[in-house]
Amino acid sequence: MKNDEQLKKSTDNNSDSKNQYDYLLSYFKNLVWLVSIAIVVMTGFALYITFHDRNEMRQQMMDVVSNAEETIKRTETSTTKKLEEIKNEALQIALKEARLGIEQEFESKNIRKLIESAAKQEIGSKLEEKVNEEFKRFCRI
């Protein structure tokens, strides 16, 4: 008997808890639904106040797009200009370093001697050919 009473009490407690849980669940579902409707209505009202007509909204959107396009074009132009400046500076630096390297190599004795000897050989053989040619021509006269 005692067990039957305890079982009946626990069953009553469980059904009360389930009923209370179902009630809270239903309450929160309705609350979420009502808050969602309120948000949609407030958003619609705010949009209506902001844009009285579609043409005004469309014009403002077009202005935003055209401003963005102009900003992009200005950015492209300035970027191209900066890249050209950097390219020119890099070229000047490279030329300066190349000239400096060449001057240093000419100042070294080994390269200078090598160039002078090559020039003497080239000029000497051509000079000798030219002298022989002129001599033959002079002898004919």
| Cα Rg | 48 Å
Described by strand count, sense and barrel closure, the largest sheet is: none
Please state roughly what percent of the residues sit in beta strands, choosing from under 5%, 5-15%, 15-25%, 25-35%, 35-45% or over 45%: under 5%
Stretches where pLDDT is under 50 for at least 5 consecutive residues are none
What average pLDDT do the residues reach?
A: 81
Annotation, overall tally of beta strands: 0
**Basic shape:** rod-shaped
**What's the total helix number?**
3
Q: Which structural class fits the helix and strand makeup? A: mainly alpha
Measured between the Cα atoms of the first and last residue, the distance is: 158 Å
Q: Which helices and strands occur, and which strands form pairs?
A:
Elements: H1 2-50, H2 54-107, H3 109-140
Q: Mind explaining what this structure looks like?
A:
With 141 residues, the chain is mostly helical. Helix content is 96%, strand content 0%. It folds into 3 domains: 1-50; 53-100; 108-141. It contains 3 helices and no strands. The longest helix has 54 residues, at 54-107.
Keywords:
141 residues; mainly alpha; 3 domains; 96% helix; rod-shaped
